Amino acid sequence: MRPSPARTPFIVRLGSSFDARSWRLIGLFAAFALIAVPVMHLALPADHPLHLSTWFITLVGKILCYAIVAVAMDLIWGYGGILSLGHGLFFALGGYGFGMYLMRQIGRDGSYQSDLPDFMVFLDWKELPWFWIGSDSFLWAVLLVLVVPALIAFVFGYFAFRSRIKGVYFSIITQALTYAAMLLFFRNETGFGGNNGFTDFKRILGHPITAPETRVVLFALSALALIGTLLLARYLVRSKFGRVLTAIRDAESRVMFIGYNPLWYKLCAWTLSAVLCAIAGALYVPQVGIINPSEMSVANSIEIAIWVAVGGRGTLIGPVIGAFLVNLAKSWFTVSFPEYWLFFLGTLFIVATLYLPQGVVGLWARLRAGRRRGEGAAAGTTTAAAAKGAGA
Amino acid sequence: MVRRNFMKTISAVAVTAAFGLNSFAALAAETIKVGVLHSLSGTMAISETALKETVLMAIDEINSKGGVLGRKLEPVVVDPASNWPLFAEKARQLLSKDKVAVVFGCWTSVSRKSVLPVFKELNGLLFYPVQYEGEELEYNVFYTGAAPNQQAIPAVEYLMSKDGGEAKRFVLLGTDYVYPRTTNKILRAFLKSKGVADADIMEEYTPFGHSDYQTIIAKIKKFSSEGKKTAVVSTINGDSNVPFYKELGNAGIKATDVPVVAFSVGEEELRGVDTKPLVGHLASWNYFMSLKNPENEKFTKAYRAWAVKQKLPNADKAVTNDPMEATYIGIHMWKQAVEKAKSTDVDKVIAAMAGQSFKAPSGFTIKMDEKNHHLHKPVFIGEIKADGQFNVVWKTPGPVRAQPWSPFIPGNEQRKDQPEGR
Amino acid sequence: MYTLRSLLAICLLGISCAQAAIDPALLRPLADDDSDRRIAAIAALVEAAPEEAQPVLQAMAGDSLALAGERVVVLGAGGRVFDAASNRELTPPPAGIETIGINNRVRRELASALAALRLFSAEREVRWQAAQEVNQNVDARMLPLLDRALAVEKDPKIRDRLQLAHAQASLGSTDAAVRLAAVKTLGESSDPRVRQLLLPLTEKQGDSWREADSAVRAAAGTSIRSIEQRLAWADNLGRAFTGLSLGSILLLAALGLAITYGVMGVINMAHGELLMVGAYSAWAMQSVFRTHLSGALDWYLLAAIPVGFLSAALVGVLMERIVIRHLYGRPLETLLATWGISLFLMQVARTLFGAQNVEVANPSWMAGGVELLPNLLLPWNRIIIVAFSIAVLIAMWAILNLSRLGMFVRAVTQNRPMAGCVGVPTGRVDTLAFGLGAGIAGLGGVALSQIANVGPDMGQGYIVDSFMVVVLGGVGQLAGAVWAALGLGVFTKFLEGWTGAVVAKIVVLVLIIVFIQKRPQGLFALKGRFVES
Q1: C18 domain residue, yes or no
Q2: Cβ separation of A196 and B81 shorter than 8 Å?
Q3: Number of domains in chain C
Q4: How many interchain CB pairs under 8 A, B with C?
Q5: Residues 6 or more apart from A104 whose CB is under 8 A from it?
Q6: Cβ neighbours of residue B342 under 8 Å, at least 6 residues apart?
Q7: ipTM score assigned to the predicted complex
Q8: CB 3.0 to 4.6 Å from C440: which of B418, C40, C83, C256, for a disulfide?
């Protein structure tokens, strides 16, 4: 028996959620992101074979953010059985929250040399609207990134879960939610730059945003955020909370009959997932240099679900793999086969759902299990756990 | 298992990304690479695919005449899939991985805005071929489409003229994004300067992809019946034009009663519409396929032949339009500038671009302004004919200089008509 | 007067006499560069040779008048060329023919000249049209013409129109009694333009009334009020109709989904692409008719209905057999797989038909509309689509309630394992039901091709809306879908008139979300005893 969670300090519990090999692996990844990448990007000359280009840093940095979103999605879908088709909204809200700060950091360097962001000058606004107040402070921006999506997720989730909306219904109304938000943000009067969104950022905390050092720091932050998300998620799903959540996924009525109120468990996971998405969005915007309402489009949200499905639901590493796999494939296909890449992508989704119900991770586990059976050994417990995770 | 998987994947990903993609750039050092950054999928594919074909056709044409500086041009086509962050990523890839000498691309303003920081950072060269709202002037960009004063203002002037129907009331109708908003803002100021009262201007916006124009058409009908001669200025974008024009035709609004002048509707867009009920509605462009001159005949014939050769769908009905002409002008001017600079170095080419001229399919000799990176372009106003082509009813006597900073937007007077150098 | 009488006699008798030649000098200015001179030329031509002018002006309005050197010619069908002056065919056709392009101003003049000439046509329909057109553009110069037309016109409806035009033209008369009569006549009109003509009569200019005679002023006031009443009524009626029409389109887009989702629980994200298949079939039929059956081109749409149904159904059955079949009981995964299918189908369309939209023309019987009132025109295509959606609805109701397949489908909806136990071949029912749903989406696509664009991305625009309709109506309920679609349509349209299209759409979506919180099962919950799994 493990010690009762109540008595052990949190940090120890967090630490014990992974075993030594996992920690080594995470350490390796951290070393890569925090040491190897900066050295290979900054110290090596551009023509050195091991030099990492800015293109690589921004691409992988972008995918790291996507990976955070995928893990957040997995938390509620893989473990909670709630498929959200509106996670793009929280991602974009985080991006917009931080984008507001970046817009204010442009200062008078915009094309209108005004204190106001360019698009406001252009709309003839004489002063900042009320919801922009304080956006020039970094801390306030961080607060916005965390609080606004949390609040929206909480309110929406509270009513939705209280009415016991679930399954497909929930997916469809989240889809409506993000669609409505997208239309709202497309309007110029809404005050977020309309279709053009926010672009042309100049600096972040006073540092030029295109400087290689800034990029490396942002990259490292994304990697740290991903590690943090993984740790937190791992801790959560192994805690009692996580087990109740999984029980709700598998048989909500029974959990209720036992005496739990699923509302708070779902709501908690849902809100947390939204906040994680928002953090990813905030890290994403300075790296890609633009945030626009199309991030809230339904297609983008569905794609998030696809990363999770391709990688493997109900595992934590699966979504990360899925995000990398799909996005790298997209990056590669759109250059190598610009005319046909949608065929590949479409087929990938179909094949992944048909033949890989547990995603790439499940496939790997199955292959391993098959080989072990050949050696006469029993299949690992992880395989069984991963297989069980499929029934959402 | 999960852990080992993690490690393998991460390292595999890193290796592929770092080395696998590097090898792309190793091909053919003899050629000059030219980036083509147009969406081939997603919502903008409808407009942008034709531009990709135009670039490829022009490159083929230049190569068949011996290339540039004795080197062949090699197109690098990528698909940013109507996704704006992807535009930025692909732009970076073209500039830093493929080391292209120049990029032809973008359609929407937002795509241009998203790649701009990349072009500035890496000192790339972008040719942007579409009419746009102005309010921008960048060192790394040449704008071969029209600024508002080369399209919108002449169109409204025409509507107010005797031949245009002496319109006194205006409906400014657009999709809700920056180009229509800016254009309408400029037009409103312009109309005001011509003595049109605010009560005689109605501004309406619809969301992207709006497909039900019944209410708006009813509003237009009502507005136009309330008195003086009314005209509609439409900046409706992309796909929404088809339902708009279909509704217009069926609601019995004839061009003789309420003419509609559009800035985003050209030959390509009209292919998707039955034009018989639309005869007489107008469009304002710097080029029409129906223009009669030897250059245009050559251009249209070459494109048709290209479409057939490439086995494009509906090749027999292939049409040319204004952004295609702008693309064509752009690539030829770039070629001339490279030859003048004797180098593909971006700074040298930018310097050599100033004052370049080219005998364009519009029938005029088009000049790149010495200062403001925009073309001097003639303006044509065409009426839609039953066959989907335009009948030119009015044109400027000669090319018009672009005003990227419209004088009708307050504060623009002090702006420099020249991009800040590097 | 003699010429006029003879002209009328000829027209009324419907005899077309051999045409006398027109002086070519009168024709040449029609091709002038200056619009003023061309308009003068039109007037001169009508004056000099009213009966011969008509075909020439008609040709000019139809863009088939051309200039060959200095000679004005008419381009006929099949590349034949006629001399405009003598109406003789020119063989061989002269070289260097250039069409005389006209602008809106000339087109307008042509239209009123032609309308004036046609007022004396032998055919009632032509005169009726002409009378309508005359009303659009009245000025005092037309009074003598209207007098002449009224003198010979027998048809009461046409006379009404002419009198209206006459009254408009005589508002500027110097005789107060004439003006009073005119104002009273105009009170019968329900044309907003007439209201605009009357308004100045009740306004002051400086200190004095624009209309000096107080009786005329009072009559104008009364007339304006009665016109306004009719206008307001027509406005609301028009809005209700647009709502109904939007509702019928939503219904057509969503009906197929009501089966696949409602009955089978499959979230088909490729539903929009099934609409696309239907729309492209309409286009394909149009192309086939154009090349092979150009005589019957107007009826391509009728052929497109079965073709659209079958091709979409075929795609649906394939989808079900290849992919969806393996995912039953995993609704969220069907969502992802069908999203993949949707990407795939879109790219197929792009590769086959090009990324651009294709042109699908309304058949001539769907063009135009019924003018109930001058400010209320119901377009034929909208009316026909409303009727079509009702027909599809009835057919679907009949299939579900009267046929054996329908019975099976309902049984499977209500209790799949039990249906299987009593011998319903659930697998086959699934395939057929999915095919049926897909086919109905195809029908929706055929209808959409008549009002919206047809292109690879067209389906994407309807996906959210269709799901909203199904969810709002309640899963597994035809009636629910109908009410939801109509409700959404009418509500959106009334809201749109008030807030603009963008805000209306947002408000509607938010209201749906709120509504679902209140009634998670939609408007009509399926009654039965289920334990939620």
Answers
A1: yes
A2: no
A3: 3
A4: 181
A5: A117, A132, A135, A136
A6: B69
A7: 0.84
A8: C256
